[in-house]
Amino acid sequence: MKIIKEKHSLAMRWTHWVNFPILTIMIWSGMLIYWANDTYTFGLFGHTFFRFFPDWFNIALNIPKRLSEGMAFHFLFMWFFTINGVVYILYTLFSGEWRELAPNWNSFKEAWQVLLHDLHVRKMAPPQKKYNAAQRIAYTAIIIMGFGSLITGLAIYKPVQFNTLTWLCGGYHAARIEHFVLTIGYVFFFIIHVVQVVLAGWRNFQSVITGFEVTDDQPNRIIKPISSDEK
Amino acid sequence: MKSKKPKKPLTIEQKINRRTFISFGTFAVLSAAAYKGWGWLKNSPKEVRTVTAGAKAPLRRALNQTELAFRRLYSNNNLVKTYPKDRAAKTVRYNSAIGLQPKSNVENWKLEVKKQSGEVMNITLDQIKSLPKTDLIFDFKCVEGWDQISHWGGVKFSDFIEHFNLGDQANLDYVGMATPDKKYYVGIDMPSAMHPQTLLAYEMNDQPLIPKHGEPLRLIIPVKYGIKNLKCIGSMVFSNQRPPDYWAEIGYDYYSGL
Questions:
Q1: A211 chain-B contacts, CB cut-off 8 A
Q2: Residue A219: what pLDDT?
Q3: By CB atoms within 10 Å of each CB, which of A70, A195, B160, B228 scores lowest?
Q4: Would the ipTM clear 0.90, i.e. be above it?
C-alpha cells in the first residue's frame, strides 16, 4: 500500500522558490552594473581565452548602457535576497534540519563515491539519509556562497562605512572580483542542479513543491529470500 | 430530512491527490502573482521629475528608502583606507569632461559661496590655500566599477567651514556645488560633506590641479562615488532641501554614498 512520506518542509520549499526569481534578478541586474566596467577575462599563461562578456552576448540580452537601472534593481532586490536567506538559515538551524545538510567528516570521502556512481563508474552509491554526501556539500556550499555574496556585496556597496568587511575581502578591488566569481559559481551550481533534478526524475522534483513523496510501506528487502532452486 | 452521512476518512489516494492539487495550485497562483508583480515593476512609469528624475518611480522610492536605512549606519568615525605615496597612480584616470571650463573662466576664478540668507561671499584661491593643507591618498571609486589609488591635497571642507564662519550653514542638511557654467552640479548631505576626509582639493600628486582634473579647485569626497567629486567648483549653496544633482536627474541614486 502507498504511504505519504513527508520530505520537504514548507519553509524550505518557500525559501527555495522565492530565492530562484530573486537570484535571477540579482544576476541580471548585476550584469547591467558589470557592463560599465567589464574588465574581467579568463586567461592562462598570458593568453586570454574568454572575456566576460562577449559583445554578442551583451547585445542579445540587452545589457549595454543600463548601469543606473541595474543599480536601482540590485539595491532593491538585495533586501529580499538577504531576508530570504536569513529566514532559511534561521529555520534550518532551529528546526534541526541542518543535521541533514551539514557535511560531516565522511561526506568528503563519500561525495567522491557519489560522483563516481553518478558518472556510472561505480555501481553502488554509499548509504545516505535525506541527502547524499555530494548534496550535503553542495547545499551547504551554496549557503556559504550566498553569505559570501552578502559580505562581498556590502564590502563594495559601502567600503568606507563597512571598511572592516572590505579589509576582510582583501580590499575593494578584490571584493568586486570575489562578488563576480561567486556569481559565476551560482551559474555553474544552477546548471548542475538542474541536470541532477532532471536525472532524479519527476517524483523527486514534485516533492519540492508538494513536500511529500509517495512510497510503498513494504520496506525494500535488501537480502532477497533464497528460492528453492538456488540451493 | 436526510441525515448527514458520517464523513469517511479519506483514502490514501484521495489524500495524495488532494495535497498534490493544493500544492501545485498554490505554486501556480504564487508564480503567476510574482510574474505579474515583475511585469508591474518593469513597466512602471518613470518618476515625476523633481530634484531626481529618470528612474522608475518604485525603484526611486526604494533608493530613497535604502538611503535612509544606510544613513543610520553612517558615521564620520569611519574613514577611507589611506595608502603610502608611492602607491598613488602617476597617471590619474580622466573619465569625463562634463562641466570642464575654458581657460578664461579659470583665470578670473573665485569661489562664490551663497548663504541661506542670500548673502554671497567670494573667496579667492589664495585665501583657501592659506588654510592648513591636508593630503589624502585613497582608492578613488567610480560608479562604473573601476577604482584607482590617487593622491590629492587641499583644505578639509570642515576646516573651510570653520575658517569662513559658515558653521550655521553647516547645520543645514545639504550643500550644493556647481561648475562656473552650471553644467555640472552635485548635492551632498551635510554629514558626508563634513566627513574629516572630504577635501576642497587644489593639488594632485603634489602639483596644482590640471584642467582635466578640475583646475583650480575640486571636490574630493571619499564617502561618495566619483560622480559626486565635482571638478572645478564655481559656486556653493547651503539648504535644507536637496540641491540639484546632475546624475540623480538621469536615474542614479541621489545619495551615492560609500
A1: 19, 23
A2: 63
A3: A195
A4: yes
